[in-house]
Design goal:
With about 160 residues, the protein is an alpha+beta fold. It is built from 4 helices and 7 strands. The chain starts with a strand and ends with a helix. The structure holds zinc ion (2 copies).
């Protein structure tokens, strides 16, 4: 019940960039929205100026959201790199994000296994980081605001 599986309309699997700048308003962003915009801008700059890998971002350049909010989109299935992809079944892997305890679970709908790849590890790590930065995790330290942690980590 706590797992949030975000679904996207079919027919949106065009190349990344084709819908850049498109914004979806099907969910209120509220508090997370105040942290999202500066984080997006900082990661856009880091990607363009310092070569930050798009796969290491905690915000999504394409959907303009936190990584954990749109990782379920078909546009995050990348067979070439193994992101959300089961090689054995040649099938897109589903992802469930639990916003309460920060669990990010990937499973192939055919073989029901989690691909043990660096891509899987990267998705789990960045989605958990985006949950934390968005202030969605109850266990974050009360004395430290997520955006302050992020600002420090960027300048480290
Ligand atoms: Zn996205
Ligand atoms: Zn499989």
């Amino acid at each position: 019940m706590t797992a949030t599986i975000r679904t996207f309309r079919p027919g949106t699997t065009q190349a990344a960039g084709a819908t850049r700048g498109m914004r979806r308003h099907d969910e209120p962003v509220r508090l997370a929205g105040r942290r999202l915009a500066p984080t997006l801008a900082a990661e856009d700059r880091a990607e363009h100026e310092r070569g930050l890998s798009p796969h290491e971002r905690i915000t999504c350049r394409l959907h303009r959201r936190w990584a954990h909010e749109c990782i379920a989109s078909p546009q995050h299935v990348i067979p070439v790199t193994g992101h959300r992809w089961c090689d054995d079944c040649a099938t897109a892997v589903t992802v469930a994000v639990d916003e309460l305890d920060g669990r990010v679970a990937l499973a192939c709908p055919r073989c029901h296994r989690t691909p043990s790849t660096r891509a899987t590890e990267q998705i789990v790590r960045t989605c958990q980081a985006s949950l934390g930065a968005a202030g969605r995790l109850a266990r974050r330290p009360a004395a430290t605001q997520p955006h302050e942690r992020f600002a420090r980590s960027r300048t480290a």
